[in-house]
Amino acid sequence: MSVPDRLGAPAAEPVFGTVALIGLGLIGSSLARAARRMNLARRIVAIDASEEVRGRVAALGIADRVTADAADGVSDADLVILCVPVGACGAVAEAMARGLKPGAIVSDVGSVKGSVVAQVSPHLPKGVHFVPAHPVAGTEYSGPDAGFATLFVNRWCILTPPEGTDPAATAAVRAFWEGVGSNVEEMSPEHHDLVLAVTSHVPHLIAYNIVGTAADLETVTESEVIKFSAGGFRDFTRIAASDPTMWRDVFLHNKAAVLEVLGRFSEDLYALQRAIRWGEGDQLFDHFTRTRAIRRGIIDLGQETAAPNFGRPQSDED
Amino acid sequence: MSVPDRLGAPAAEPVFGTVALIGLGLIGSSLARAARRMNLARRIVAIDASEEVRGRVAALGIADRVTADAADGVSDADLVILCVPVGACGAVAEAMARGLKPGAIVSDVGSVKGSVVAQVSPHLPKGVHFVPAHPVAGTEYSGPDAGFATLFVNRWCILTPPEGTDPAATAAVRAFWEGVGSNVEEMSPEHHDLVLAVTSHVPHLIAYNIVGTAADLETVTESEVIKFSAGGFRDFTRIAASDPTMWRDVFLHNKAAVLEVLGRFSEDLYALQRAIRWGEGDQLFDHFTRTRAIRRGIIDLGQETAAPNFGRPQSDED
Predict the structure, then answer these.
(1) Which of A92, A197, B246, B278 has the most CB atoms within 10 Å of its CB?
(2) Total-model pTM
(3) Which residues on A lie below 8 Å from B295 (Cβ)?
């Protein structure tokens, strides 16, 4: 994998004492690599329930300690980051809570914020700070081997601190994410969940759906779908190859916003469908013209490459 | 643009005498470049109704002759390829018909085949061969400057010769496409139109639609959509930036197949939506698991890169 690395110089002194990461998948293992590379933590503790994952983390050497015991693993931590699927956050918070030291900061990386706040907050002891976070970054690959230190460079990370959160705790979490190369924004959990429903959750559902629809056609073979996918379909298959557990949880835990955006999507699609049925070419043309400007904005903001076809190699031989 | 070039050695002798290309956009101008590079034509004539396009083609030096007159431009051609939007094929065929020499082969590159056959065939004089073709290749950019010689390398080109077509004419068109690096398949226009509705047309419509839905939300700003697009949305914006005229024509001319596939897509989407509403996590998980295999097939067949995030540079600074 050739991912350009534009992380700057590491911090002269570690920014945090001990950072504990719970769940060492794509995101957790990327954070471990980035935190070490950027000298953000004096010590990194990796906590994972899976023996296989712990074995890989130990072999990769991306943490100072690897353990299955959440409460024990977090006992020295100044910053604990939950990097587990959204549906597991409550149980993990409950399991680790008794180990948390006073003044510790708890954060997470969940793609849904309202539900995570509701699940985690009740378990946290007084004197522990909770600053929920969501890095809008990832790839279609999963697991500790898929991570890399530059995953968060120039990506946004959204913080959703509840009212009354200690500003110093929020500032520390911000410093961590800026340390791994992210741009940081703050908003309410509710607004986050609506924004992400549009920019991430519904696009994933639609991609999963069209790939399924294509696979189910009796009159077109799967081999044909695969062969002729360069006509556009292949673009959808990337996000439809993302981690199924993570995405199941996202949809179950961001139900209201996803259903709201899906309703609008279907309404709009019916309008286009009707324009096709009735041959209303001008309506189609006008719609297709305005969507170009949005992509230009994304490219201009550095969230996308301007190279044709995402800069894919033109052929697999290369 | 750094597109790897895996075209092989050019033909020792030109494969065709004169090749006339009508419409010098992304596809037509790429064919001009590829045909010259691979020595497929002794002479290339570029025909375009737009003065601006003719000026660019002349400046780029990718054709031996540039003209606005279709009938005159095709008069020496052994092979004429229509590279205009699907909706313009009938008018262009009518305009050029009187110039065609006996034995000439006419082909096209339209994304819809049934309609093109119906539009073009009535205008062709006896003794002229018609071998419709569709290269499943492209980028989100348009116009003569966007073309490049390797666009068709390792992409499929589908031929849909009507019953009774001279096999020698079909073989000649096949040789041309193989010459520019494509893999060639043959099928009926009807089957082509259904396959492409799934692998290209409906994916484009869905992409255009979600980008529009996102832009129309009152509660999420366009700036937020752009910022947080790395969560999945940006993948859709690429094909939603494609040429509006071309795509308007595709939908108007492949109405039946597009409406059929759209109907299935919506039905399947409602099933997923219902699973979210009722919290049926197992159904979501199962659906999300099977779609991974399709992407693997596309990668294995060389129609897609295995690099995370399509191999995009990790940040725009690079």
Answers:
(1) A197
(2) 0.92
(3) 140, 211, 234, 237-238, 240-241
